[in-house]
């Protein structure tokens, strides 16, 4: 069964975007993944087909209407659709590699791309939307975030990467950042490849890579080590 993603957006022309190229593009061509973009505005009513309105209580910007979005969700995800419903949102739970793996192991996802100031809270609750964030910053809309999420998921689907091991030794897969990489030439601008990597001693190479992963994680993401401590203590 292939991974099937339905994206609800006001800009369906933004998809598949870069997902139509390289690994993801080949996965879609083979049928390993299916990407469908649906225009939320198709489910608006009235002469002007408005999808937004002013925020209750006042304030700047506009808010995506719950009735319009609910109709769009119900149309693409009727009763019995087991796919999780995700809302790309800066206030959501941060996307992790573990969550990416969970999604890749499932049937797909319905992904809502917000716009304006946000989405009416009532539809988030009524349609059980899981808010997902790709970082502590704000975008003009959820579409770039959805593309990033789908890129991360599709690349770890079975058979997408030529070498399955490629996806198991990367940053976050083991709870640490990935070690540095080197390739030819042996010397580049007076910088040499670390001797251990060309020693032929595979055990020493593995130990070096593990030590470098730990060093980089301590320097750049010590929070990951704290998370790991908590996991190991359980």
Folded structure, characterized:
By secondary structure, the chain is α/β, with parallel strands linked by helices. 33% of the residues lie in helices and 19% in strands. It has helices spanning 22-30, 66-76, 97-104, 121-126, 143-154, 202-220, 222-233, and strands at residues 3-9, 33-39, 52-53, 63-64, 85-94, 108-113, 118-119, 130-133, 187-188, 191-192. A five-stranded parallel beta sheet has the order 2-1-6-5-8, sandwiched between helices. A hairpin with a 2-residue loop joins strand 9 (187-188) and strand 10 (191-192). The model has no long low-confidence stretch (mean pLDDT 93).
Order of helices and strands: EHEEEHEHEEHEHEEHH
Please give the alpha-carbon distance between the first and last residues: 35 Å
* Structural class assignment: alpha/beta
Helix % is 25-40%
Shape: elongated
Largest sheet: 5 strands, parallel
For this entry, give a set of tags.
234 residues, alpha/beta, five-stranded parallel sheet, three-stranded mixed sheet, 10 strands
Short account of what is shown:
The chain is α/β, with parallel strands linked by helices and 234 residues long.
List the helices and strands and how they pair.
Layout: E1 3-9, H1 22-30, E2 33-39, E3 52-53, E4 63-64, H2 66-76, E5 85-94, H3 97-104, E6 108-113, E7 118-119, H4 121-126, E8 130-133, H5 143-154, E9 187-188, E10 191-192, H6 202-220, H7 222-233
Parallel strand pairs: 1-2, 1-6, 4-7, 5-6, 5-8
Antiparallel strand pairs: 3-4, 9-10
Helix pairs in contact: 3-5, 6-7
């Amino acid at each position: 069964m292939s991974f099937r993603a339905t994206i609800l957006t006001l800009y369906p022309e933004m998809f598949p975007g870069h997902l139509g190229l390289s690994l993801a593009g080949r996965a879609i061509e083979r049928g390993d993944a299916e990407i469908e973009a649906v225009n939320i505005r198709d489910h608006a009513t009235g002469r002007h087909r408005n999808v937004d309105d002013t925020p209750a209580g006042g304030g700047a910007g506009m808010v995506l209407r719950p009735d319009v979005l609910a109709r769009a969700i119900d149309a693409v995800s009727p009763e019995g659709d087991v796919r999780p419903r995700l809302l790309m949102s800066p206030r959501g739970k941060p996307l992790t590699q573990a969550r990416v793996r969970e999604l890749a192991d499932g049937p797909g996802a319905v992904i809502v791309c917000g716009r304006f100031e946000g989405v009416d809270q009532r539809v988030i609750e009524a349609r059980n939307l899981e808010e997902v964030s790709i970082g502590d910053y704000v975008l003009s809309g959820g579409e770039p975030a959805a593309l990033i999420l789908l890129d991360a998921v599709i690349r770890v689907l079975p058979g997408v990467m030529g070498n399955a091991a490629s996806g198991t030794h990367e940053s976050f897969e083991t709870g640490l950042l990935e070690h540095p990489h080197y390739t030819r030439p042996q010397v580049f601008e007076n910088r040499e490849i670390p001797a251990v990597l060309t020693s032929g001693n595979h055990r020493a190479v593995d130990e070096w890579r593990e030590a470098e992963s730990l060093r980089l994680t301590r320097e750049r993401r010590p929070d990951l080590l704290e998370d790991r401590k908590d996991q190991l203590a359980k």
